[in-house]
Amino acid sequence: MNRHKSALVWLTGLPGSGKSTISHELEYRLFQQNIKIYVLDGDNVRQGLSKDLGFSADDRRENLRRVGEVALLFVDAGILTIAAFASPYRTDRRMVRQMFGPGDFIEVYLKCDVTVCEERDPKGLYKKARCGEIKNFTGISDPYEPPEHPEIVLATDRMSIDESVERIVGYLKNKGVIP
């Protein structure tokens, strides 16, 4: 009915790697093509659905479980869904992937050197984390486990936003998700 398939495009990477920027640019471009699309981002989910959670490993897991369940509802409704979360632990990303059928979970790893992420940091979170003001900060005081077999890898410290979005769009077209 929508003239496109639904799936979950899961953007993962260090804070500052470009997840929000790329997800919203992808949303804009696909919306222009009449694709039914929605972005779940750490900023909008943490203000409501997960406002009761912190950043411990258990709270991160529960946050991602909730995001996965919501994304599953969107995908079931025929909406192409983008999730932009650091999601630093492989086991948590695997848990979400297992909620979806084959081909319906598309993991996109935004590979970016931590020094570049720190340079981009508009909120000053890396600086606060390095000073000890923020605990459990991914990439500084908490680990980030890169995906082992993501569907797409974007070197966002070397690629433009346009190049990154085009790579995702190309993948979606190649897999028959969008026309």
Textual characterization of the structure:
With 179 residues, the protein is of the alpha/beta class. It has a single domain (8-113, 144-173), classed as P-loop containing nucleotide triphosphate hydrolases (Rossmann fold, 3-Layer(aba) Sandwich). The chain has helices at residues 19-32, 42-46, 57-76, 90-97, 114-120, 125-130, 161-174; strands at residues 8-13, 37-41, 80-84, 105-111, 152-155. The chain has a five-stranded parallel beta sheet with strand order 2-3-1-4-5, sandwiched between helices. α1 (19-32) crosses α7 (161-174). The two termini are 13 Å apart. The model has no long low-confidence stretch (mean pLDDT 96).
Order of the strands making up the biggest sheet: 2-3-1-4-5
User: What spatial form do the alpha-carbon principal axes imply?
Assistant: globular
Query: What is the chain-wise order of helices and strands?
Result: EHEHHEHEHHEH
CATH class: Alpha Beta
- State mean pLDDT (0 to 100 scale): 96
CATH architecture: 3-Layer(aba) Sandwich
Distance between the termini: 13 Å
Instruction: Determine the CATH topology.
Output: Rossmann fold
Percent of residues in helices: 40-55%
Radius of gyration: 16 Å
Structural class: alpha/beta
Strand content: 15-25%
Low-confidence residue ranges: none
CATH superfamily: P-loop containing nucleotide triphosphate hydrolases
Number of domains: 1
Task: Please tally the helical runs, counting DSSP H or I stretches of 4 or more residues.
Answer: 7
